[in-house]
């Protein structure tokens, strides 16, 4: 793999492990999958054979963003007026949306993953965790396999959250029977995926997370067995916590969700929860003490959060916080860079009601980089320094959009907000997005033909009924 020399970058966010700083008018040299050097005049020294030089004057170079919570499969129901949260109660919305999801086919899961990952990459995301809990029976068990296929197509560093639901609707869940699995089915497929794909090595491009959907939609044994498998195979755990379900869990089990998960063992430095907007400070202290992290999804708060997630309290208490887009059910885009701005502005909006001050704008960039890397257990991504993965993105600030904004590159994404695609995104030392294109594309929005395809992309599944989506 050729290396790259990004010459004379206007600003580079450098972090050698002691916190981020801004390097001005410096070069970035990559060698294979890693960053080799950051400094002035690197073109005057000896460069690896095959290094490609790029004039980067005016570029602000950032560490690649790390998305810690998403639901790719929801992307084909974006911008649907008939599913507008403002016109429906939560129960009405669930009754409408889950029957749609239960009709998705294997091909839908592949193409929706390409769609979501492509949008993430275009906006600076280099590592994505997706919580895929939708497994319609007719679609089969190879849905995560197809996601890894999509990630390989685009060059995305991908952490697959193998989710699942086991509690029938008749026993209090919101899941149609067509999407239910047994605990044994769920655990067996998690184990299969770990054996087939999980790469815990440095710069690994594929990892698997054991991620039962949420306690309200699963039997207790599903979480107990998830902990046993994850700890045995040394992989991460993830689920939804603190998004309004605690009273339900307390009614069923006599404990609110945080204590329920802790009693089972679904907590610790190898576990992270999505959302957590309804949690008390005492519950946040317990999570901090156990090392359990939070994937904060700011944009869904606009639609479905009863209150704004208390990030200042989480920061003060020492919780590890990452950022996530969440699915199109509650966020109609896959732009994690925009979520940095949303997260900061939401906290400013609620500052007068908080016991703790809003963290500095630069911290919100940290949530989307080093924080996300920590949640996923990665010590090789999330910051720019020699020896770290060459995961980065660049913005050419020589545009009218950035007039008056270039004083503080660390705060730019949080305070100004960037709505346009990056000028370049690099993952594992490979440029995967540049000049408005995915290099090597053979079809619009893609880069090369997928490694394995079970059917032509527009064909129907053998078990697909007339009228079901073909994607």
UniProtKB/TrEMBL annotation:
Keywords: Hydrolase. Residues 462-471 have a biased composition (Polar residues). It is an enzyme of class 3 (hydrolase). Residues 60-432 form the Amidohydrolase-related domain. Gene3D superfamilies: Metal-dependent hydrolases, Urease, subunit C, domain 1. The keyword RNA-binding does not apply. One of its GO terms (molecular function) is hydroxydechloroatrazine ethylaminohydrolase activity. Residues 446-455 have a biased composition (Basic residues). Its EC number is 3.5.4.43. Residues 438-471 are annotated as: Disordered. Belongs to the metallo-dependent hydrolases superfamily. ATZ/TRZ family. This is Hydroxyatrazine ethylaminohydrolase. The lineage of its organism: Bacteria, Pseudomonadati, Pseudomonadota, Alphaproteobacteria, Hyphomicrobiales.
């Amino acid at each position: 793999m050729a290396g790259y020399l990004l010459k004379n970058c206007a600003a580079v966010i450098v972090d050698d492990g002691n916190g981020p700083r801004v390097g001005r008018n410096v070069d970035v040299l990559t060698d294979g999958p890693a960053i080799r050097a950051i400094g002035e005049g690197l073109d005057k020294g000896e460069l690896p054979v095959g290094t490609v030089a790029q004039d980067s004057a005016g570029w602000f170079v950032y560490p690649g963003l790390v998305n810690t919570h998403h639901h790719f499969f929801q992307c084909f129901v974006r911008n649907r007026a008939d599913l507008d949260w403002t016109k429906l109660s939560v129960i009405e919305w669930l009754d409408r949306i889950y029957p749609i999801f239960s009709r998705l086919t294997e091909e839908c899961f592949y193409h929706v993953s390409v769609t979501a990952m492509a949008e993430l990459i275009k906006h600076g995301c280099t590592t994505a965790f997706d919580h895929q809990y939708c497994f319609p029976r007719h679609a089969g068990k190879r849905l995560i396999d197809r996601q890894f296929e999509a990630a390989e197509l685009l060059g995305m560093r991908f952490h697959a959250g193998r989710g699942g639901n086991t509690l029938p609707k008749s026993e209090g869940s919101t899941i149609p029977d067509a999407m239910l699995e047994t605990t044994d089915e769920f655990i067996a497929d998690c184990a299969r995926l770990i054996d087939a794909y999980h790469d815990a090595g440095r710069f690994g491009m594929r990892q698997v997370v054991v991620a039962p959907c949420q306690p309200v939609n699963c039997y207790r044994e599903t979480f107990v067995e998830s902990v046993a498998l994850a700890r045995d195979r040394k992989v991460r755990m993830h689920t939804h916590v603190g998004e309004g379900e605690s009273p339900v869990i307390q009614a069923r089990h006599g404990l609110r969700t945080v204590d329920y998960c802790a009693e089972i063992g679904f907590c610790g430095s190898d576990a992270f929860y999505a959302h957590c907007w309804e949690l008390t400070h005492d519950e946040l202290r317990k999570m901090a003490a156990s090392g359990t992290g939070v994937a904060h999804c700011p944009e869904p708060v606009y639609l479905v959060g009863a209150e704004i997630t208390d990030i200042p309290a989480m920061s003060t208490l020492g919780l590890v916080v990452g950022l996530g887009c969440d699915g199109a059910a509650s966020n109609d885009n896959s732009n994690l860079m925009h979520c940095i701005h949303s997260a900061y502005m939401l906290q400013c909006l609620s500052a007068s009601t908080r016991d703790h001050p809003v963290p500095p704008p630069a911290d919100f960039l940290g949530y989307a980089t080093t924080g996300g890397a920590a949640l996923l257990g990665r010590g090789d991504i999330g910051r720019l320094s020699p020896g770290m993965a060459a995961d980065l993105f660049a913005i050419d600030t020589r545009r009218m959009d950035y007039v008056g904004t270039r004083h503080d590159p660390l705060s730019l994404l949080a305070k100004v907000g960037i709505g346009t695609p990056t000028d370049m995104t690099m993952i594992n030392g490979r440029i995967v997005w540049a000049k408005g294109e995915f290099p090597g594309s053979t079809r619009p929005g893609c880069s090369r033909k997928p490694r394995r395809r079970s059917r032509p992309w527009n064909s129907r599944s053998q078990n697909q009924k007339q009228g079901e989506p073909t994607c």
